[in-house]
């Protein structure tokens, strides 16, 4: 089976299942739930970082790339997880954070202690540029007492690595080979389009400095080198690059098979449609026209030029899509299925973020003390500094905080929802009594719907391999597309609103077959009516 038929499930290990009651999820917890994941039908598990780390950014501040953080378990646990998963037809994808390391990593410590060799591992300058850190403030911090500065595009304790140095590249390629030898079959590369920095770094007032270090031409060379030095030898390995503020043109270059870079890319344009003036820390209803434009733009360009998208609504950095794009209070179930259809029938490889398959919601916290994420704390402070009231700042933060998706997985309706019997590291969502796996499996229908979507991708080549074209791009409520493969076609229409609507059905689909829909009794004809959040896929 190729990556086109597969579906990947993302696990945030800290919040999946705690088996030693210390309040933090662990590898044993993932092992225990392999039967559940097999039942769902997913092919690969992407785990967020599980390496030793001071956890300033929940593991994205790596202190050792080839070991396991003791809070998650041991290397033996990891090896067992690989085996158990594999014997159930599931592979593992690890998160490779190669743009930066924790300042506690031995490379940074040796650099600080004066070792020239390791100083060349980092980006040190006498004068900082005006670039802003993605977590607030200037992107440079004093490098010890040297009078120089090191670059940190993210948190201060995440020091950017100097990819211009061949020794750095070799170290990182070794890391990939280490995990490949352990049977790992997938790699997710964190902010990989930021690794290529120019030799001379220049001020850049536009967009917080992003153009100065994003998607530079050299990044493609580095990725190709990485491919040739490691995973390029194993055609079963799946790679996905997380692309910050990228373009379809670059994503085509990153993923065209003949260029031998990556299998697919994540981009975030569709999840910025509720950013006012492009700023994350604002609160705004989503802009449906913008959402469709980005889907159609990436969809058609990647289809025409043989690129490949990673398809997703949720991840560990995003509030739950149900809270952003659906009136979840009234239409949670229909809305969850509609969102699922919109990406699972699309061109690309779908990702499911833990809890999505049971329709989990944002936790609905009521106080800042419930949030753990460093980005949220910084953003809240910045909003106050800008003169916002505490209530207003909290309202904004609540709509965008990354912890919204990081709360513990809701397994059952017990006090800590079966996640732990200890004290969970992050509070549970308020709806855990009503929305949990036990309840979903006994009386819900979202999980089954996901199961069916996953199977359909494996059964119908038009889903895995078809081309992509926009359908009714101007319709005020419908996001639709047509997929075509050989002589078969699939039309997918999704009503993104709680108002009913209708469309005229193109003739070729009027006699078609309904492949999957989230309402019963869909009558096909010249015209079809769509209920609130209705989704329907017609095959002919
Ligand atoms: O995220 C990169 C990234 O740019 C974001 O999605 C980021 O969280 C957001 O822009 C902040 O507003 C990746 C990881 O997914 C994230 O968890 C890490 O914190 C980050 O890289 C640094 O490693
Ligand atoms: Ca634990």
Describe the secondary-structure layout:
Elements: E1 8-11, H1 27-32, H2 34-40, E2 44-47, H3 75-87, E3 91-96, E4 100-102, H4 106-112, H5 116-119, E5 124-125, E6 140-142, E7 149-151, E8 158-160, H6 166-181, E9 186-189, H7 217-229, E10 238-242, H8 248-255, E11 264-266, H9 288-304, E12 310-311, H10 321-325, H11 328-344, E13 349-353, H12 374-385, H13 390-400, H14 403-406, H15 437-443, H16 446-459, H17 461-465, E14 467-471, E15 478-485, E16 488-495, E17 501-504, H18 507-510, E18 513-517, E19 527-530, E20 535-539
Helix pairs in contact: 8-9, 11-16, 12-13
The chain binds 1-O-alpha-D-glucopyranosyl-D-fructose and calcium ion.
Radius of gyration: 23 Å
- Helix tally? 18
Question: Low-confidence spans: pLDDT under 50, at least 5 residues?
Answer: none
Extended strand count: 20
Give the second-level CATH assignment, the architecture of the largest domain.
Alpha-Beta Barrel
Query: Quick one: CATH class of the largest domain?
Result: Alpha Beta
Strand order of the largest sheet: 11-10-9-3-2-1-13-12
Description:
Helices cover 31% and strands 16% of the residues. By secondary structure, the protein is of the alpha/beta class. The protein has four domains: 8-100 and 166-367 and 404-456, Alpha-Beta Barrel (TIM Barrel), CATH 3.20.20.80; 107-151, no CATH class; 368-403, no CATH class; 465-539, Golgi alpha-mannosidase II (Immunoglobulin-like), CATH 2.60.40.1180. The strands form five sheets. Strands 11-10-9-3-2-1-13-12 form an eight-stranded parallel sheet. The longest helix has 17 residues, at 288-304. It is globular, with a radius of gyration of 23 Å. The mean pLDDT is 98. The chain binds 1-O-alpha-D-glucopyranosyl-D-fructose and calcium ion. Calcium ion (CA) binds next to loops. Calcium ion binds at residues 18-20, 22, 24, 26. InterPro entries: GH, GH13_cat_dom, Glyco_hydro_b, O16G_dom_2, SusG-like_C, Trehalose_TreC. GO terms for molecular function: alpha,alpha-phosphotrehalase activity; transferase activity. Keywords: Glycosidase, Hydrolase, Transferase. Residues 10-406 form the Glycosyl hydrolase family 13 catalytic domain.
